[in-house]
Amino acid sequence: MTSPASITNWDDETDVLIAGYGVAGCAAAIEAHDRDPSADVLIVEKMTEARAGGNGRVSGQSLLISHNAEALYQYQRAMSAKNPVPDDMLREWARQMAGLESYIVERSKEAGTQYVRGSGWSEGDAVYEFPEFGAENAVAYNAIIKPIPSGVWITMKNCVEKRRVRRQYESPIVDLVQDPDTLEVHGAIVQHEGRRKAIRARRGVVLAVGGYASNGDMQRDYYGLPESAPFGSPANTGDGVRILQKAGADLWHMRNFGQSGGIWPAVKVPEFSGVFMRRHLWQTFSWFDIAADNRRFYNEGADLYYTHYKERKHGHWVDTPLPRALPAHMLFDETTRENNCLITQAMTWNTVVEKYEWSDDNVAEIDRGWVLRADTIEELAVKMGRDPAAVRAAVDRYNAACARGVDEDFGRPSYTLQPLATAPYYALALVPGLVCTSGGGRRNIESQVLDQTGQPIPRLYEAGELGSMISDLYQNGSYLTEAMISGRAAGRNAVLAKS
Ligand SMILES: Cc1cc2nc3c(=O)[nH]c(=O)nc-3n(C[C@H](O)[C@H](O)[C@H](O)COP(=O)(O)OP(=O)(O)OC[C@H]3O[C@@H](n4cnc5c(N)ncnc54)[C@H](O)[C@@H]3O)c2cc1C
After folding, report:
1. 4-255+436-496, what's its fold?
2. Over the stretch 367-401, which tens digit does the pLDDT of each residue have?
3. Is 149 in the pocket of ligand 1 (CB under 6 A)?
């Protein structure tokens, strides 16, 4: 922390300082402005204007809509059973969630975007991730906002831009200005044009800088993932966690029982720091995945995209074992190559912001060397750096299961058991891809950050993925809506605090 006594001259002053121009930061800014239109609100964002927007901008845009607070409370409580969230927080969150749809619809109208019922993730209106915990009563439906991609973030950003909210880009927050005795926050230090600028915040500071999916060291230290890469913003390097540690905050949800957002099969290529998300819904199934030992390692045909890559093992929902299987490859044949674009184009930083258009037939990526091709399985194995006989054995075993219509190894559904039968054959290296993280400062439903004794740190608020209340299993559409709810609370409480 930087002490107020060390500041000889403030470079800028505001009433409410918000760090991060994602969905949570937008929600905080809109609320702060609307609660007190005379207040000065400043957003500082790490990236350039063209690259702002964080994970929300490149997300699936799915919003959880609930009309039943009691059922949602029960559902979330069951999903959080491995690491319970305070009951009063859960109840109030569920109450606010049950009323959130009108807020979203209003914002969408104001922004000139299109609110649409239905998730785009499934043929039905809703994704029920964990039915046995009461999903069907809790979730009315999922909704998205068009345009896709980025509709939710575009909506919130347009609403911010209609208000008197100052925005400053290429200005990462790096520290808080804080009384060393009381921990009261007086402002923040922002890095801009090569120098540290001190910004006074008369009423409060909101940290809405997202998570740490783009920080490999934090993934190793906090999550135990030896290797992983982000689907989302390269800006989300855990800056908020570092700042909160210095600020005396208690941390929570750094490592949940499972990775809440899931550990998804992803494709890493040298040209991009982030990863592509492997396709979910397949037209053909002549493919399977192998681990370092040249064997299959899970049920690849299960509907894992509906459970954020959790599978039920020994009575518990756990992450699929990709991180413990590396190096891993997907093997497939010509039929699957011809009929499926291998990745999901509608979300991820690489496709939405970097605007890489993966070819529908994957030929451009084969030509780039991102996908390996060979006329025989043995030749393909050599290109992968694997033992040809072992890879041949894996293909024979899988093809035999297809012939029987029964996967005795992992119980892959019979309709997905299609053999690798048509040459040429292909291989795609897989790495663990992260949608998001939950860890950050422990907070209450008012978005106040708590210190290690459970007391709010004066004038410090936190919203969104940084310090999310999601403590284990995750229902589709909860992160974006939580960013709105926690952002609104942060903006409201900050602006209403006396200066
Ligand atoms: C591929 C993908 C799909 C997803 N799909 C869904 C979905 O369908 N539904 C759902 O609910 N959730 C989904 N999520 C999760 C959801 O997008 C995020 O949890 C949510 O956007 C978090 O919002 P946020 O505002 O807290 O963080 P972000 O949206 O990540 O925004 C953080 C902002 O802070 C900025 N920043 C970072 N560091 C600093 C700093 N030091 N100073 C200033 N600014 C900084 C970033 O540049 C960014 O603009 C998905 C995520 C990904 C990556």
Report:
1. FAD/NAD(P)-binding domain (3.50.50)
2. 999 999 999 999 999 999 999 999 999 999 999 99
3. no
